[in-house]
Specification:
The chain is an alpha/beta fold and 267 residues long. It has two domains: 151 residues, Rossmann fold (3-Layer(aba) Sandwich), CATH 3.40.50.1000; 101 residues, Hypothetical Protein, Haloacid Dehalogenase-like Hydrolase, Chain: A, domain 2. 30% of the residues lie in helices and 23% in strands. It has an eight-stranded mixed sheet with strand order 5-4-3-2-1-12-13-14, with helices on both faces. Strand 4 and strand 5 form a beta hairpin. Helix 1 runs parallel beside helix 9.
C-alpha cells in the first residue's frame, strides 16, 4: 500500500469541466494512466457525474474496471456493475415536469433510467449530440408515460444556455418538488429532493468506513458543491465560475497534474 501524506484513500472527480474541458468527449492518456497508477498503489478512484453509467464505462476504458461510479448527479452508484444505491423521483411529478419542458421552445428532454437515456428529440441535432457526441446509450420513445422503470433524473437541455434563458423559469416553478442544479452551459438537472453528489458520497464513505479527511474531491460546477464542501480536501477547478471558486481555498488547473504532484507520481 502506498504511504501518502494525510492518508488519502479515495479520489472523487467530476467529469465535464473538471476532467474534460472545452467540450472534449475523451480523456487524455495522462489522466487514464494517473488513475491506473493510483489504483495499482491501492487508492480508490470514483467518477461523480451527471452522466449515465454506460457512458462513463466507455469514457474511462481500462481504468473503469476497478472504479466506483457516482452517476446521474448522485442518483445511482455502481461498483463492478453492481448497484450500490439507486434513488428515484416521484413519477407523477416527473411526467408533469417532462410536459413542461416539452412545451418550452428551444428546450430538449433527457430522462435517465438506470442504464439508458430516454429521448423524444425535437431536433435531429439533439439526437446526434446525445448518441454520437456525448455517446450515451439512448432509447427513443413516443410517450414518456410508457417507460416502465424508475425515473432517476430528468434534464432539460437548452443549446443557447440554460442559465441566461430558461433556468429561472424552471427553477422557480419546480424547486419545491425537486433538487434543481445547473450542471453545464446548456443543462439543468432535476432529481429527487435529497439526491446530490454530496449525499451519494456520504453513503459511499459509510459503506467504505472512510472519513471525510481521507477523501480528495475535484469539481467545477453547482452540482459539485455538496461534494466539495463535505470533504477536507475539496479542489475547485480554476476554470470554474468566480462565485464557485471563491468558496474554496484549494484550486486545481488539471486533475491529473494535481494528483501527480500530491502523490509524487512520475508519469
Amino acid at each position: 500500500m502506498l504511504r501518502v501524506k494525510n492518508m488519502i484513500k479515495l479520489v472523487v472527480s467530476d467529469i465535464d469541466g473538471t476532467l474534460l474541458h472545452n467540450g472534449n468527449q475523451s480523456l487524455d492518456a495522462k489522466t487514464i494512466q494517473t488513475i491506473l497508477t493510483l489504483q495499482e498503489k491501492g487508492l480508490l478512484f470514483a467518477a461523480a457525474s451527471g452522466r449515465q453509467y454506460p457512458n462513463l464505462i466507455r469514457l474511462f476504458g481500462p481504468a473503469s474496471k476497478d472504479m466506483i461510479f457516482i452517476c446521474e448527479n448522485g442518483g445511482l452508484i455502481l461498483y463492478k456493475d453492481q448497484i450500490l444505491l439507486s434513488s428515484s423521483m416521484d413519477r407523477t411529478l416527473g411526467l408533469a415536469l417532462i410536459e413542461d419542458i416539452w412545451n418550452r421552445e428551444g428546450c430538449e428532454i433527457l430522462l435517465s433510467g438506470q442504464f439508458t437515456s430516454y429521448l423524444k428529440p425535437k431536433s435531429e441535432e439533439y439526437y446526434h449530440r446525445m448518441k454520437n457526441i456525448v455517446r450515451n446509450d439512448v432509447t427513443l420513445i413516443e410517450d414518456f408515460k410508457d417507460i416502465k422503470e424508475d425515473f432517476i433524473k430528468i434534464s432539460v437541455f437548452e443549446k443557447a444556455g440554460i442559465a441566461k434563458n430558461s433556468g429561472d423559469y424552471f427553477v422557480s416553478k419546480w424547486e419545491s418538488y425537486f433538487k434543481c442544479t445547473i450542471s453545464g452551459h446548456g443543462w439543468l438537472d432535476f432529481t429527487a429532493p435529497d439526491v446530490n453528489k454530496g449525499n451519494a458520497l456520504r453513503f459511499l464513505l459509510k459503506k467504505l468506513s472512510l472519513s471525510t479527511s481521507e477523501v480528495m474531491a475535484f469539481g467545477d460546477n453547482y452540482n459539485d458543491l455538496e461534494m466539495l464542501s463535505m470533504v477536507q480536501y475539496g479542489y475547485v477547478m480554476e476554470n470554474a465560475a468566480k462565485e464557485i471558486r471563491d468558496r474554496y481555498s484549494l484550486r486545481a488547473h488539471s486533475v491529473a497534474d494535481t494528483l501527480c504532484d500530491y502523490f509524487k507520481l512520475n508519469l
